[in-house]
Design brief:
Elements (H helix, E strand, L loop, with lengths): L7 H11 L3 H13 L1 E5 L23 E3 L2 E6 L3 H8 L6 E5 H7 L5 E4 L7 E3 L1 H8 L5 H13 L2 E4 L3 H17 L3 E11 L12 E10 L5 H18 L6 E6 L18 E2 L43
Helix pairs in contact: 1-2, 2-6, 4-5, 7-8
Amino acid sequence: MEDEKLSPFLRLLLEAIESPSRSSFENFYLAFLEESFFVPRRYQGKPIQNISIFPTPFLDILGLQTRDENFVPIFTSLEELEEWRGEEPLEHLSLTGRELCKRTPEEWWITLNPAGETGKEFSPWEIERLRHGQDALDELIEDQLRDEARGVTLEPISEQQRNAIREAVQPLQKEHSAFLALFGALHTEASPHEHSTAEVPEKRYLFGVLTTPGISDDGKEKLHKVLQSCLSQLFIGDLSVELTYGTSMEHSPTLALFRFSEPILTKEDQKYFEKDRQNTPSSFQGPFRDIFVKLRNFFTSPPTDQEDI
């Protein structure tokens, strides 16, 4: 989505992402509380698969489940909602961010503009703070600023490098069934000390490896050995290479750095990513925010022997 087409609210979101500061975070969160969103209803014309288990029958906002997490999809416009729902009719409500936080069950996430070009995930902790309104913003903003103070930045790897990595690593992915996806970036970490004597921030290639939850220690060690060797040879004479592993971005702080990055490589048939996701030119479309790419994939269909998405 081009910047000139963004709504004022989404402009505030981009400002908070691109120019993080106390004022940009505060402006965004305050706007979120007052902004009205299009929120799909829990009860539709026909049953939906992957629907969450609700804590009360009276909650009428749609919740969708993937792995052990529950997401409430919300949209900034009818266009975003209609693009996501595909051809299926979908009833919706109009709720402010403030009201939405009050209605969202504990430990659930809110995902803004699933599969859209510009969006964000709100964690359960963020939602809990936002339930208290402006009075709790200071704590929320301080947490965001602490993250920024670490001086960690990620720069995208060039398309030429991504293609070379994809070509080199793809055979390894076929050999290791637990290897689901690979992310990568140029990682720069400044010293956390204001008066550090370090002249140049440390730079390296950082790769995030998403694996299945059931991977064994031996399987992880074997995967690490071949990946480290492959990538180190690929970047020989260049910056150092470091790999980090996780089974989800929520439980791996380092892997979470790639939350809004395009994966370099994913399994074509694996469940967590859209098959043609590499063709989406967006730096804000996170790997988990676009799980529910089309609602029509989630309306129940005749029973099969295959596992549900």
